[in-house]
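Hi R.,

Here's the input for the magnesium ion complex you asked about:
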Amino acid sequence: SIKACLFDLDGVLVDTAKYHYLAWKRLADELGFEFTEQDNERLKGVSRMASLDILLSVGGVELDEAAKLELAERKNNWYFDMISKMDDSEILPGALEFLKDCRENGLKVALGSASKNAMTILNNTGLTPYFDAIIDGTRTTSAKPDPEVFTLGATELGVSPDECVVFEDAEAGIEAAQRAGMRSVGIGSPCTLGKANLVIASLGDITVDRLLSIAAV
Ligand code: B16
Ligand code: MG
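And here is the predicted structure with magnesium ion in place:
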C-alpha cells in the first residue's frame, strides 16, 4: 500500500525553471553566445555543474574546473537574488491542495530535489511545514537518474520503496524513481514522461483518493 509521496521541487511544486533560465541566459550573454528556452529544457532536473557543462557545450566553450566553478557561482548569485523574492503566489496550481490532501490522509511527505537552494524556495513560498523529510542537493552525492535522493527520502520517512510514489517533471527523475523501486507520477507531457506509471498535467489533476484507487500506480 502507498504510505508516502516524494516530490521533486522545480517543475512540480514551483516553477523555478524560468529563473534558472534567466540566470543561465545572462551568463551566456556575457560569454557571447545565444542560449534559447529550448536549450534550457535540457537543464531541467540536472545538477548545477552538469547544467553548466551543457550550457558551455551549446556555446562551444571549453574551460578548466576553476573557471567553471567561478561561472557556476556567478549564475547562482543571480538565481539566488530572484528566488529570494519568491512568495506563495508562485506555488504551481494544485500543489498546495495536494500536499494538504496527503497530510490529511496520513501519507508521509518528502522533498527529493537536486537543488542546493531548495530550503530558500520552500521557506519563501511557505511550503516547509508540509514536509516530514527534506532531501536536497546539499544532502546527496549522486544526481538523478541515480536513485539516491529518493532512497534517502524513504529511509528518513521510515517507509519502504514499494510504499512510495514519486512526483517528477523530468525524465531523469522518473528513471531515478524506477531505479529506487518506487512508483512514479509524471507532471507534464506523456511524450517525455512515458515511463511513469501515470502522467498528469499538474498536481491539480490528482487527489489522494484517485491516487490510491489507480491500481497501476
Ligand atoms: P541549484 P529539481 C533542479 O531542481 C532543477 O530542475 C535544475 O534545473 C537545477 O539545475 C538543479 O535543481 C540544481 O539547482 O543550482 O539550485 O542547486 O527539479 O531537482 O527540484
Ligand atoms: Mg524538476
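One thing worth noting: DSSP finds ten helices and six strands in the chain.

Cheers,
M.
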